Amino acid sequence: METLTPDTGRADGAAADKGAALTVTMAAYVASAVQKAQYPVPVLPQIVFVGRSNVGKSSLINSLTRQKTLAHVSKKPGKTRTINFFSVTLKENDVRREFYLTDLPGYGYAKTGRNERNSWARFIDEYLTTSREIRFVAQLIDVRHELMPIDEEMFRRLTGYGLPVLPIATKTDKIGKSMAQKNIAQWRRKLRIADLPVLPYSSATGMGRGELLDTVWNSLL
Questions:
Q1: Residue 32 burial by CB count (10 A; 0-12/13-18/19+): exposed, middle or buried?
Q2: Whether pLDDT at 116 is above 70
Q3: What's residue 5's pLDDT?
Q4: What is the pLDDT of residue 4?
């Protein structure tokens, strides 16, 4: 089982955070896919974002890229029904690195029909098991709640595929610190990983953005 540790700064305690120096110079929609033939070219490293419907995935993507309308934010869950690829370029000093930010359909939306859920499962699994350029999967989990069975199922599926997984605790601005810590502790107990790295993130305040950019950058090296 492989999890990913977010880059939270230098080991010597220096204040410099690479995420503060990193700049997203370009972020644009490239393609949507429900089969392998529709994946974009050229082939680039890929950072995958997945989470339960209404977990705040689109808001996080827009926050991370600092583009308010890159990913469509809907009040109705279950709107993302394809694998959406966004081309993103990160820059530090004179070095640029390009990758695809891959947005998977949200899981767990009760009003989605069984046939549609099965279809999603097939093309999502095909992507996760055949793409050789996935650097890690950011699994978004709402920190206001204990770990739900469907989140556990997705985590175990991803790690079962041998993919590095970084759990991201979303909506940290909507809950007190002690309750957030309590819920994250429950996630670790449920997953039986006492030292599971979890990155707190708030799309509203930008908390965690620098650390996530650092982690993306380092995965591209």
A1: middle
A2: no
A3: 82
A4: 78
Residue 38 sits at the vertex; the CA angle it makes with 45 and 104, to the nearest 5 degrees, is 60
The full set of domain ranges for the chain reads 20-219
The pLDDT of residue 6: 84
Give the predicted TM-score (pTM) of the model. 0.88
Q: Alpha-carbon torsion 90, 15, 49, 73, what sign?
A: negative
State what percent of residues in the chain have pLDDT above 90.
Answer: 75
- What 8-state DSSP symbol labels residue 141? E
In sequence order, the β-bridge partners of residue 3 are 165
Question: 20-219 — its CATH code?
Answer: 3.40.50.300
DSSP string spanning 89-140? EEEETTEEEEEEEEEPPPB--TTS-HHHHHHHHHHHHHHHHH-S-EEEEEEE
Mean pLDDT along residues 85-99? 96
Residue 168 backbone zone (phi > 0: left; psi -120 to 50: alpha; other: beta)? beta
For residue 42, cis peptide bond before it (omega within 30 degrees of 0)? yes
Residue showing tokens 């590095």? 164
